[in-house]
Amino acid sequence: MKIKLSRGEWFTFSIFGLLLCLTPYLFTRDWGFLKFEDVGGTIGGVTAPFLSFFGSILVYLALKAQVKANRQVQDQFKRQQESEYFREKIVMMNEKINILNFEVNNFFYLYRDIETLGGPHDTEYKGSQAIYTLLSKNITTFYGKRQRDSFLVQPKFTELYKLLNYFSDTLTMIEREQYDLDLEKDEIIKSNFFSVLRYLFEAKIKWNFKALEDKKSVHNNLCDGDCGLNHGLPVELFDVVDEINEKLIMVKSN
Known about the structure:
mainly alpha, 2 domains, two-stranded parallel sheet
């Protein structure tokens, strides 16, 4: 490990080093007015404090190196902790996205066609096809002559509604969380998350609702055909889809 000294430290050590080198010469000269009878003893007595000082310098340098090494270890440990923290957040978000992807692609709807030859026939739809079939086959669902909750009449609406809210909440979480101390890397990670969810939304969800947008209803008015019944698809589903779409547009524009 390299030990870097400040200018003040270099200056101080240089002055004392020069004095130490000149000491034998100075105290072995005959200055006339000052004589040293025991040259060895004189030099030893004079240089001993300097040698002790340089011993202290070595101790100082060793302690300084140790402090620096300890600081580097602490900084490295802190970086490892931060790196592990962000890695865990990325893993958790990947798991949420994988769950969302699985739920969308495995969303199913069992439709019973009672008008087929040979009697009623059940057909199971999955993924995007299931979402569209659920919506398109329940436009004229009978809600009774009084206002009724469409989510109670068709339980799959509730499941779809919960799934869409989970999608929206995931987008919000991605935007609020930080996944790296480096802001540029953080943006790249978020962009990758949003890219996956944008594909999932636009390929599997968005256009199924767009195709039937004119069929949404708040179910507070009777049928325009004066049949006395409530028809249409629950507007709450379309509201969440619009919310997801707006979040993705805002991310893309940023």
